[in-house]
Amino acid sequence: QVQLQQSGPGLVKPSQTVSLTCGISGDSVSSNTVAWHWIRQSPSRGLEWLGWTYYRSKWFHDFAVSLESRITINADTAKNQFSLQLSSVTPDDTAVYYCARGSEFGVLIDDWGQGTLVTVSS
Amino acid sequence: DIQMTQSPSTLSASVGDSVTITCRASQTISSRLAWYQQKPGKAPKILISKASSLESGVPSRFSGSGSGTEFTLTISSLQPDDFATYYCQQYKSYWTFGQGTKVEVK
Description:
Distance between the termini of chain B: 36 Å
Distance between the termini of chain A: 39 Å
Structural class of chain A: mainly beta
Shape of chain B: globular
Structural class of chain B: mainly beta
Shape of chain A: globular
Helix content of chain A: under 10%
Oligomer: heterodimer
Number of helices of chain B: 0
Strand content of chain B: over 45%
Number of strands of chain B: 11
Order of helices and strands of chain A: EEEEEEEEEEE
Helix content of chain B: under 10%
Number of helices of chain A: 0
Strand content of chain A: over 45%
Order of helices and strands of chain B: EEEEEEEEEEE
């Protein structure tokens, strides 16, 4: 059974960078058959996919078009975790952020972290 | 982008009722559709993948059907634990979610 444990601050000031980490147990971040996603949820946007990373002999990343200038997703194989950085945040980025695993070669999002409420406020 | 539209937004029902939620995709997604259940303060939990495949451990009163652009989730005999919000999600081209259907106590 895969478990995803999120960590990171819940309050960020406008224009700063949100940094969240997702620790993985029960699977490997560098597995060739899964992928690792970030998703957020807010009352105004609903559930919104942000981006993913996966390893297929080398690392790949892809992001939602609306965020691609501000988002970074990295994997840390030594710690078996992956992370999200979202820069230049505004109050509109206030949301619950989830990390998740995609099985079936990454496309089926089946296991989720517990969620982190990130509030952007001065 | 593929848009997902669910109906209804809210559904009032009683324990034992059979309920159906509909999800429509803006373009064909074959059977690349999943259904999730979410309870307040919790992450979504996957119920069904490939439009109709029940995930391990999910009660058999949940069923999914459809392909192309029209899909349904049916709960055959609603149980107290089933009052929650349900989301469809397409994974044919990236990932997009419906806006959710809240199943509430009538």
